[in-house]
From TrEMBL:
The lineage of its organism: Eukaryota, Metazoa, Chordata, Craniata, Vertebrata. Keywords: Coiled coil. Residues 371-398 form a coiled coil. Residues 435-529 form the PTHB1 GAE domain. The keyword Coiled coil applies. This is PTHB1 protein. One of its GO terms (biological process) is cilium assembly. Residues 532-639 form the PTHB1 platform domain. It comes from Ceyx cyanopectus. It comes from the Eukaryota. InterPro entries: PHTB1_GAE_dom (IPR028074), PHTB1_N_dom (IPR028073), PTHB1 (IPR026511), PTHB1_hp_dom (IPR055363), PTHB1_pf_dom (IPR055362). Residues 1-363 form the PTHB1 N-terminal domain. Residues 641-708 form the PTHB1 hairpin domain. GO terms for cellular component: BBSome; membrane.
C-alpha cells in the first residue's frame, strides 16, 4: 500500500441501496460504558439505525458479527443522529434521532450475554416530540448556560428554530429573511446559534434574543412583527462570505477563545466568535465534508477536509500537512477513540461505505532470524507435540457448546409470486376508485436445517401497496422442517407506488447446544420479491400527445416491446412492438415508445409522477434481458434536462392540499361544536313542547353534519 493512502484499520458496507448524508454519522460513548470508548452510530435515509464497536484482531480485518452492537429499522428516514445529555434527572448520554416530522430520544443499554457472542444491546424510547414542521437539521448544547444537561434546537425547512428543553417544547422563532435552510451550529462560549443564510452570509443569533423575541405561529406573522412595536428578532453579527456553506463547526479547546469554522464551496474560513476572520484558505478542489480537531502545537488547530476526488487533506491552520487517498468520497468524517487507539479517522460515503483508518505507514516488524547452530533436541519436540495434541483433544470435546459452523444457512426464507393475478380479488379497504382492484398471491416458505425457536415472519411492501396479512408467528421448528404461508398483495392507496419490490424478514432464536436452558442466539433471515406491474396498471391504447416526456438512451439496439412486456400484449392493438399503453388504476395513462431507428425509448404521460414507475420497470427489464444474453456492457443514460420546475410545482401542490385538508378539519371541528350547542339550547327551551319537531330538527342537524 502506498505511503499516501489511508491505512485501513476496519471497514464495512452498510445495507443495500441505502443512502447517507452529513448528519448520519456520530461517534460517542452512547452506552455509557466504563471503558469510555467511542461507538460508531450510523443512521440511514431508509430508516436503519446501526451501532458499531470495531475491534479487529489486526488492521484491515473484515468486519466480525460481534462488531455490530445493534441494528434496528425505524419507521421513518433518519436525518441526523446526535449523542448528549438529553434526559432530565441524569447526566448519562442518550441518543437523539431526528426524523422528518419527529424527534426521538433513546437510551442505549447492554444486557450481559451468556455465550461468546457477547452482550446484547437494545434501545428504549425515553420520549419523543411530534414536529409541526418538517425538520432539516438539529444542534444541541447547554443553551442559556444550563449545567449538566443539553437542550436541542431543530431548524425546519421553512426557517423556524424550534427549541426543546429535553422532554418539553420551549418556543419557536422564525429566522428573518429566510429562503432555504443552511448548516447550523451552537457556540457555548457566546451562547449563540450560527448559520449561513441564502444571502451567503454567516449570521449569529444570541439565545437570549431568541428567547425574548415575540412569538409567531407562521411566516406571515413573523414578517408583520418587523413593523410592530413588539420585540423582534435581531442578528448579533453578520459576515458575508460570498458563497454557500456546506457545514459549520464551533471549536473551543480552552476557555479563552473559540473559533467558528465554515466550509464553503471553494473556501475554508476560520472566524473569531465575534464574526471577524481569523484566517481563510482557498481550496483548489470541491470539498465534501470536514471536521476540526485539536493540534499538538499551541495556538493552531488541525482540520480534516474530504473532497470529491476521494482525498482527505489535513491542515494545520492554513498549512497543508498531509494528504491521503480514501477508497470512497466521504460525506461525513469524525475522529474517534476506539479500542484504546486514539485519533481513528471515521469516514462514511453516501452509499454506505464505513471505514476506520489512520495516517502514516506501518513499521516493518520483520527481523532476520538468528542462526542456531545447536543440534535439535527431539525429546523436547516430542513433549511439546504431546502437549499440543492434548490441547486439541480438549478443544474438540467442548466444541459442541455452540452450534458447528455450517457452509449453508441455518434457515432460508423464499418468496414466490404467482404468475397470474388472483381470479377473485383479495383486496380489502382499498381507496382506489376503480371497478376492480386486482391482487396477486405471494407464497412464502421457511426452510430450517436446524432446530429454531419462536420464528416470526414480517412482510413489507412499499406504500401505497399493502398485503392482506403482514405478520406471522410460528411454533418451534424441528431440523429439516418447513412452513409455508400464503398472502395477497394489492394497491391500497389512490396513487402509484414508487417501487414494486417487497421484503420478507424472519427473526428466530437459535439454541446453543448444552446451554439450551439458559442461552439463545437471535438471528434474522430475509429475502426480496417483486410484484407484477399488472397489479397497478393494465394494457390500454397508447396516447399520441402528453404533457410530460422522458427519453432514455441506451448503448444497444432497441428491443421489441412485446419481448420486454409480454404480459401487456393486447391482440386488439397494432404496432405493439414499438408502442405500448399503460392504464393506471387511478385513471391516468402512460405511453412507452421504442425508436425504430435509434437506441432510444420514450416514456410520456400527462402526470409527471406516473413517469417513474414505467421508467424503472423499463430499465429493469432491459437489464434482465441483456443479462440473459450474457451482455455485461449494457447501460441506460438520460441526457435531457431534469424537469425540476414541474417537480417543485408537484411538491407545492401536495403541501397546499395538505394545508387545505388541515384547515377543513379545523372548520369541521368548529362547526360540530356549534351544532351541538344549537341542539342543547333547543332541547332545553322546548323540552315541554311537542317532541316531534325537535326530533326532526335533531335529525336534520345530524344529517347536515355528516354531509359536511
Amino acid at each position: 500500500m502506498s505511503l499516501f493512502k489511508a491505512r485501513d484499520w476496519w471497514s464495512t458496507i452498510l445495507g443495500e441501496n441505502e443512502e447517507f448524508d452529513q448528519g448520519c454519522l456520530c461517534v460517542a460513548n452512547v452506552d455509557n460504558s466504563d471503558s469510555r470508548q467511542d461507538k460508531i452510530i450510523v443512521g440511514s435515509y431508509m430508516g436503519y439505525l446501526r451501532i458499531f464497536n470495531p475491534h479487529p484482531v489486526k488492521a484491515g480485518d473484515e468486519v466480525q458479527p460481534e462488531d455490530l452492537l445493534l441494528e434496528v429499522q425505524l419507521q421513518e428516514p433518519i436525518l441526523q443522529v446526535e449523542v448528549g445529555k438529553f434526559v432530565s434527572g441524569t447526566e448519562g448520554l442518550h441518543l437523539a434521532v431526528l426524523h422528518g416530522r419527529r424527534l426521538c430520544v433513546y437510551a442505549v443499554s447492554a444486557t450481559l450475554g451468556n455465550v461468546e457472542h457477547g452482550n446484547q444491546y437494545q434501545i428504549k424510547l425515553m420520549y419523543e416530540h411530534n414536529l409541526q414542521r418538517t425538520a432539516c437539521n438539529m444542534v444541541y448544547g447547554p443553551f442559556g448556560g444550563v449545567k449538566g444537561r443539553d437542550l436541542i434546537c431543530i431548524q425546519s425547512m421553512d426557517g423556524m428554530l424550534m427549541l426543546f428543553e429535553q422532554e418539553s417544547y420551549a418556543f419557536g422563532r422564525f429566522l428573518p429573511g429566510f429562503l432555504l435552510p443552511g448548516p447550523l451550529a451552537y457556540s457555548s462560549r457566546t451562547d449563540s446559534f450560527i448559520t449561513v443564510s441564502s444571502c451567503r452570509q454567516v449570521e449569529s443569533y444570541k439565545y437570549q434574543v431568541l428567547a425574548f423575541a415575540a412569538d409567531a405561529n407562521d411566516r406571515q406573522e413573523a414578517e408583520q412583527q418587523k413593523h410592530s412595536s413588539g420585540k423582534r428578532l435581531v442578528v448579533d453579527w453578520v459576515l458575508n462570505i460570498g458563497e454557500q456553506a456546506l457545514d459549520i463547526c464551533v471549536v473551543s479547546f480552552n476557555q479563552t477563545f473559540s473559533s467558528v469554522f465554515v466550509l464553503g464551496e471553494r473556501n475554508f474560513f476560520c472566524l473569531k466568535d465575534n464574526g471577524q476572520i481569523r484566517f481563510m484558505k482557498k481550496l483548489d478542489y470541491s470539498p465534501s465534508c470536514f471536521i476540526p480537531y485539536c493540534s499538538v502545537k499551541a495556538g493552531t488547530i488541525n482540520t480534516l477536509i474530504g473532497n470529491h476526488s476521494k482525498m482527505l487533506n489535513i491542515y494545520q491552520n492554513v498549512t497543508l500537512k498531509w494528504a491521503t487517498q480514501l477508497p470512497h468520497i466521504p460525506v461525513a468524517v469524525k475522529v474517534a477513540n476506539l479500542q484504546d487507539l486514539k485519533g481513528v479517522i471515521v469516514t462514511l460515503s453516501d452509499n454506505g461505505q464505513l471505514q476506520c483508518s489512520y495516517l502514516g505507514t506501518d513499521p516493518s516488524i520483520f527481523q532476520a532470524p538468528k542462526v542456531d547452530s545447536r543440534e535439535i533436541n527431539y525429546e523436547e519436540f516430542d513433549a511439546e507435540m504431546k502437549e499440543l495434541q492434548k490441547i486439541i483433544r480438549e478443544a474438540t470435546r467442548t466444541q459442541d457448546i455452540l452450534p458447528k459452523s455450517e457452509k449453508h444457512k441455518d434457515l432460508i426464507v423464499t418468496a414466490e409470486v404467482l404468475p397470474d393475478l388472483d381470479a377473485e380479488s383479495q383486496a380489502i379497504d382499498s381507496e382506489v376508485q376503480a371497478e376492480a382492484v386486482p391482487s396477486v398471491t405471494v407464497k412464502i416458505t421457511i426452510q430450517s436445517r436446524v432446530a429454531v425457536q419462536k420464528p416470526s415472519l414480517v412482510v413489507c411492501v412499499r406504500a401505497p401497496l399493502a398485503v392482506t396479512r403482514d405478520q406471522f408467528i410460528f411454533d418451534d421448528l424441528e431440523p429439516d422442517s418447513s412452513e409455508t404461508v400464503v398472502l395477497s398483495a394489492f394497491l391500497k392507496g389512490n396513487c402509484s407506488p414508487s417501487d414494486l419490490e417487497g421484503d420478507c424478514f424472519v427473526s428466530y432464536n437459535m439454541p446453543t447446544g448444552k446451554l439450551l436452558e439458559i442461552s439463545r442466539i437471535t438471528k434474522v433471515a430475509q429475502c426480496k420479491f417483486r410484484l407484477p406491474l399488472l397489479l397497478v396498471c393494465s394494457p390500454s391504447p397508447p396516447s399520441k400527445a402528453a404533457s410530460h416526456k422522458l427519453t432514455i438512451d441506451t448503448n444497444k439496439p432497441p428491443i421489441s416491446l412485446l419481448t420486454l412486456f409480454p404480459d401487456f400484449v393486447d391482440l386488439s392493438q397494432d404496432d405493439q412492438a414499438n408502442v405500448l399503453g399503460f392504464q393506471f388504476l387511478m385513471g391516468s395513462k402512460t405511453t412507452l415508445l421504442a425508436s425504430k431507428t435509434s437506441q432510444r425509448y420514450r416514456v410520456q404521460s400527462d402526470q409527471l409522477e406516473d413517469l417513474w414507475l414505467i421508467t424503472k420497470e423499463l430499465t429493469l427489464r432491459l437489464e434482465e434481458h441483456f443479462k440473459q444474453q450474457n451482455c455485461e456492457e449494457f447501460a441506460c443514460t438520460f441526457s435531457g434536462s431534469i424537469p425540476l420546475q414541474e417537480y417543485f410545482e408537484l411538491i407545492d401542490q401536495h403541501f397546499e392540499l395538505r394545508v387545505n385538508a388541515e384547515r377543513i378539519q379545523e372548520l369541521l371541528s368548529a362547526r360540530a361544536v356549534q351544532f351541538r350547542a344549537i341542539q342543547r339550547r333547543l332541547l332545553t327551551r322546548f323540552k315541554d313542547k311537542n317532541p316531534a319537531p325537535l326530533q326532526y330538527l335533531d335529525t336534520l342537524l345530524e344529517g347536515t353534519f355528516r354531509e359536511v
